[in-house]
C-alpha cells in the first residue's frame, strides 16, 4: 500500500510517500499498519485515549473515508494530520 503524508507526519516518515505491506481490511487496520511501521505518527493522529484526532483527515484513492470503511490492499491512502495551534488572540501578542 502506498501512503502519502502531509505536514509534520513527513518528519516521522522521512518521505512524502511511503509503502507498507497491507493485506486489506478497514481504514483503521491500514492506519494501524502505518503506525506499526512509523510509530512517531501515532501521537499526531490519535489522542491519548485512542481516538482519531478530530481534525485528522484520511482518504482512500482520493475519497474521504471513515475508519470503519473498507480499504483494499492496493489502495492509495492519504493522511492529513490533525491541525494544531491557534488562539483567539493576535499571534504577535499585541492587542
TrEMBL record:
Name under which the protein is recorded: Molybdopterin converting factor, small subunit
UniProt cross-references to Pfam families, sorted A to Z: ThiS (PF02597)
InterPro entries, per database record: Beta-grasp_dom_sf, Mopterin_synth/thiamin_S_b, SAMP1_3, ThiS/MoaD-like
Origin: domain of life: Archaea
Gene3D superfamilies xref list: 3.10.20.30
Transmembrane residue ranges: none
Amino acid at each position: 500500500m502506498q501512503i502519502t503524508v502531509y505536514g509534520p507526519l513527513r518528519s516521522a516518515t522521512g518521505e512524502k510517500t511511503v509503502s507498507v505491506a497491507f493485506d486489506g481490511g478497514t481504514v483503521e487496520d491500514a492506519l494501524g499498519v502505518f503506525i506499526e511501521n512509523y510509530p512517531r505518527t501515532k501521537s499526531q493522529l490519535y489522542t491519548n485515549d485512542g481516538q482519531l484526532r478530530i481534525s485528522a483527515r484520511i482518504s482512500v484513492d482520493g475519497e474521504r473515508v471513515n475508519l470503519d470503511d473498507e480499504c483494499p490492499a492496493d489502495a492509495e491512502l492519504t493522511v492529513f494530520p490533525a491541525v494544531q495551534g491557534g488562539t483567539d488572540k493576535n499571534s504577535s501578542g499585541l492587542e
